[in-house]
Design brief:
Layout: E1 2-4, E2 7-9, H1 13-23, H2 29-47, E3 53-59, E4 64-70, E5 74-80, H3 84-93, E6 98-106, E7 113-119, E8 128-132, E9 135-136, H4 140-151, E10 156-164, H5 166-175, E11 180-186, E12 189-190, E13 196-197, H6 203-208
Parallel strand pairs: 2-11, 5-6, 5-8, 8-10, 9-10, 10-11
Antiparallel strand pairs: 1-2, 3-4, 6-7, 12-13
Helix pairs in contact: 1-2, 2-3
The structure holds 1-O-pyrophosphono-5-O-phosphono-alpha-D-ribofuranose (PRP).
C-alpha cells in the first residue's frame, strides 16, 4: 500500500484481478457485483485502519487479559445510487455502524451534482464517518457530500472509492484537505463527458443492470 498526501492507493493482487473484471465491458451485472463485493471488503479493511481503541479487560477460558473495543461510533454514508454497493463490506466489519444516505446524481450536461435526498444519523460530531462511492470523477459529488456532512457536525470524515480521477482527487483535497481518500485505482483523466478514463463506465448502471 502506498500513502501519499492523505491518499491511500490500495494495492493487492485480488484488487488488481477484480478491477480488471469490473473494467471489462462484457462483465454482466452478477459478476460485476461479485467482484465489487470482494474489492469493497479490502477497501473497507484499509479504510478502517487507525481507528481509536480503548483498552478493556476480557476473561478468556484461562485467565483475564487485556483487549480492545472501538472508541468511536462509525457512520457509513452512501452516495446513491452506486455507493450502495460498498456499504455491506463496511458493516461486515462494523455491524453496529449507523448508515446514512445521500441521494445525488450528476447532471449529464453540466456534470454538476444534483442532490435529491438525504437521511443522515443524528449527533455524528464525535463519530468517524466513512463516505462511500465507487467513482470519484470531477469530485463534485464527493466534495458536496463532505460539505453537507460537515454542516451536520461531522468532524472525522474519510472517503472510500473504487476508481478515482486525478481531477477528482485534486478537487476533494483542495476543498477538504482534512478528508483522507482510500481508493483502489487512480486512473488517467476525465473525457469530455466527465467519465473516468479508462474507468469502468457508469458504476450505478453496471451494479443495478440499468445500462
Ligand atoms: C456517479 C458516481 C458518483 C458520481 C461521480 O453517479 O457514482 O456519485 O457520478 O462523479 P463526480 O465525481 O463527477 O461528481 P451518477 O451521477 O452516475 O449517479 P448514480 O450513482 O445514480 O448512477
Amino acid at each position: 500500500m502506498n500513502s501519499f498526501d492523505q491518499v491511500t492507493l490500495v494495492d493487492h493482487p485480488v484488487v488488481s484481478r477484480d478491477l480488471t473484471i469490473l473494467r471489462n465491458r462484457n462483465t454482466p451485472s452478477p459478476d460485476f457485483r461479485s467482484a465489487l463485493n470482494r474489492i469493497a471488503i479490502i477497501l473497507a479493511y484499509n479504510s478502517l485502519k487507525g481507528l481509536p481503541l480503548r483498552k478493556v479487560e476480557v476473561e478468556t477460558p484461562i485467565q483475564k487479559t487485556d483487549g480492545y473495543e472501538l472508541d468511536t461510533g462509525i457512520v457509513v454514508v452512501s452516495i446513491l445510487r452506486a455507493g450502495l454497493g460498498l456499504v455491506d463490506a463496511v458493516t461486515r466489519f462494523i455491524p453496529e455502524a449507523k448508515i446514512g444516505h445521500l441521494g445525488m446524481y450528476r447532471d449529464e450536461t453540466t456534470h454538476q451534482p444534483v442532490d435529491y435526498y438525504s437521511k443522515i444519523p443524528q449527533n455524528i460530531q464525535n463519530d468517524h464517518v466513512l463516505l462511500v462511492d465507487p467513482m470519484l470523477a470531477t469530485g463534485g459529488s464527493a466534495t458536496d457530500s463532505v460539505s453537507f456532512l460537515k454542516s451536520k457536525g461531522a468532524q472525522n470524515i474519510r472517503f472510500m472509492c473504487l476508481i478515482s480521477a486525478p481531477e477528482g482527487i485534486q478537487r476533494l483535497r483542495q476543498t477538504h484537505p482534512d478528508v483522507s481518500i482510500i481508493t483502489a485505482a487512480v486512473d488517467e483523466c476525465l473525457n469530455d463527458d466527465a467519465f473516468i478514463v479508462p474507468g469502468l463506465g457508469d458504476a450505478g448502471d453496471r451494479i443495478f443492470g440499468t445500462v
